[in-house]
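Replying to the earlier thread about multi-chain prediction with a worked example.

Input:
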Amino acid sequence: MRGPLTTALVPHLLRLTPRTPMALGTATPLAVAVLPLALSTHLAPGDAALLLRVAAVLCVFPVAFALDDPAADTTATVPFPATVRRLLRLALVCVPSAMTWTTCALLLRAAMHPYDRIALPLPGLALEAAALATATILLSALGLRRSGGERGSALAAPGSVLLPLALALSPAREQLFAVPYGESWHASRWLWASALTVAAGLTAVLLQERPRLNSPVSVTT
Amino acid sequence: MESEERSAAQQVGLDRVGVRYGRRTALREVSLSLGRGVTGLLGPNGAGKTTLLRTLATASTPDTGTLSVLGLDPLTPTGRQALRRRLGYLPQNPGLPSHFTAYDFIDYVGILKEISDRQARRTEARRVLAEVGLTADRGRRIRKLSGGMRQRVGLAAAIVGDPELLILDEPTVGLDPEQRLRFRELIAGLGEGRTVLLSTHQTEDVAALCHKVVVLDHGTVRFQGTPAELALLARGRVWSSGERAPGALAAWRTGVGTFRNIGVPPTGASLVEPTIEDGYLLLLDGDGDGDRNGDGDGDRTPADAA
Amino acid sequence: MSARAMARVESARALRHPAFLVAVLLYAALWAYEAWSEGWSGQYPVLQDEDRYTQVTLLLPAVGALIGTNLAATRMHRHGAQPLCEVLALPLWRRTLAHLAAAVPPALVAAVLTGARILYAATAPTAVGSPSPVELVTGPVVVLLAGCAGVALARFTPSATAGPFAVLFLGALVLSSALGARGMKWVGPVGVESEFAAPLPAGLMHRPALTHLAYLAAVTGVLVLLALLRSGARPLPARAALVLLVATAVVTGAVQYRPLPDDLAARRADAERHPGDRQRCRVAGQVTFCAFPEFLNRAEDWRRVTDGILGRVPAAERTGPYAVRQRLFLAGGGEGVSATPPLQAWAQDDTRHRTPGAVTVGTGWGTDDIGGGEMLSFAVRFADRVVSGPGREGAPTGSMLCRARAVTVLWLAAQATPETADALRSLDRRSFGGVTLTTLESSQALSVSDPEVRVVLDLLDRPTAEVGDRLKSSWPALTDDRTSTERAARLLGVSAPANAEQASEGTLCAAR
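Result:
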């Protein structure tokens, strides 16, 4: 029975998807990625990796708003599981974001010299983007707990910009954002994979519907 | 036997239910039993009405005590899920997605209430929107609707699926007198054969709709009985005069220019028949705690008033 | 009156806003981690560079301030209380002014953080130079600008997306500056310099700090006026001021890009070719250290290296006096073909200032990859000078150290201090087929092949005194580049890699 319900739910969940962040999170990374091609610039592998990382931050931005639900309180007591709804909503945002990232990767790769393209490790960079997205979802799940299920973006939107900035300014930035196939590349992939795993585990716990007592008044900031 | 079973299955029972928000106690060992029909929940702001309704609606869980709602235990996952298929809930200030149309939102709620057949959902959406008087506005976006219309959209969402238990938190907020009248007719009709629990500040709604009323104050039940019994608490304590009585517990100007006073009537005062509002105000006043034997379970009756 | 009261309330809220608090906590955490991982002794701050580093780290509180003020200014809209605001006695533009005033406390917090950070750097025993007040003020002004930007954005759109996206836009500007994108260096809030460029004496630096500060102030003013105009402030004076400020921002923005002034270019060229004219010297034992005045305290650090080297050389072989001179090479570190330093001019300068054959040391020094490389480079050049003896006055003629001589010179340099040993290990990890140590990132370099590097790394794991005694007892053989690496290793008590001799085939060492 859940199958037809899920299918019927998709158009409504699409309608709930935040449009402005989606538009910004699609247009701006594509603009960043297409610029080198437009300027007929040959990108070095390091520069391509840097631009792809910038694109990842922009692509992940809409994810911060994916779980916002102004009708959370009104639909809190329906039989359709909230966890399934949330996962569907995440999929409806994350899949387009992943496609945007992939398009950016292909555009930047196209702007590289053919002999250099092998030096752009797309799976490794995809791991970073996935970890960043998962961390953003985790912040959103935390924000939902604090706001009675309505506004995960209150925490996730500032977090999705503060977190990459903090990492970029940290003394460990060269270990984290390692040069592709450089000295710390493989060790940094393990770091990102661990971060992704931990974030995913915590998110899975926080996204569970637990009707734990929350004050019915939302946090005002 | 069968009707007794059905009656028993439709009861809502709370036994020493307690809820805390941090250090603040919202509900203090509340015990209640509700049957079919419409029950009104009265109380001042912060009394615990919304907490009680959210707990019954499975929107949150209590810290102590046990619940039985429609014969199910909402504290277990299976019980909660089964109960949600049979209840409708209208929260206070219902949040609505502003860019949905009224019809879209009701259709959305219909899916969430597991009405999988599209035609059935469509029929149900039209029905509930007609019940709340929004047929003409069902294609308008929610952000274009007035506050009262949005309240009615929330109410329509609550009654999707024809639930056996309706929990309504201040449902008449924002409704004009005509709409409130229509609401009373709707709820009165729903109350036949269902259990409806609504919280309100409008004692006229309680008088018109409810066969039972519960008064909450500071998280405890101060009164449970019929509206008439609540009004009787004030028998002999309400009088009319041409001016505000200085010693009255409460006094206000009526629509006909006289003053209605509550308290110990002065000698020679002309007593008037008490209303639910009089009984409610007297109950919440400091000296009338409704507790005959001091055990905190709010067992004030008209005999106590005498 | 009520606007002032509102400003006080909003200011308190701005400081307590979770976005700002988290940003400040992250700032503090990063600083603490940096201090813990490097330790006091691992820092060699140059204060005229540290002052601008404070700006980059303040981007975190700036982000927090922008998001916080933006959320504060859209609070009523987000919580459906906008109709209430429409009938308030306090007009919208005054409320906007109160929100703008609330951007000041975060900037003050930023000023305190800047002060604390530069004080921390300045009190390091190894600190040199002096910070620029203008650079120090720039960071807090960026935080103020960010706070005002948050309010201005709120007056154009109440969308919750606007604040974070504005942050991403500012981040893009900073990144463009950091990447050296043409024309983008000074558009954003922070003008990022290449972290590979060597520090310069303050008098030779070219950073339009004051102009940039004026530019940021003008942009802040523009944002303030835009916010007020959108809030219904009286149009005529506000618009006139807006036009003026926009013009100021454009002019100062353009002036930031003016090229290097001719007189500064001439001073730089002179400082590069004739550093002795501007330097002061300090004598310590057998070594004279000459440096630009603000770097003279570094002589203590250089002395630790020279003492560490000279202490392992037989007394009879210490044919001093030696000299160390700090030099600049401004063409160094650029991409593409490395340039040749003005060796002849340096030699003449040394002769004129009575420090013939002075060993070059740069302005960079530290325990990170770049500073450590400079540290090791200097140590190798000094060790090579000591091993070569008086006949090697002037520029070294060979670019490759060979066989036993390579082992001796590299070991003397690496064992001088714990930092030089770490620098060699770090350089080895990043290199392939041996190590190359450039002079000030120029084409002048000393290279050591991999087998000799392996031997030296093994020697570093053995007691230094024991190796030192073996070196002294076999000094002539060990300083002769005809002595094989294998024999050198045996004399020093370790074994050489199997391919030690084959590795020198095809190199400059094969001809010797």
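Residues 2-186 of chain C form one domain.

Feel free to reuse this layout for your own posts.
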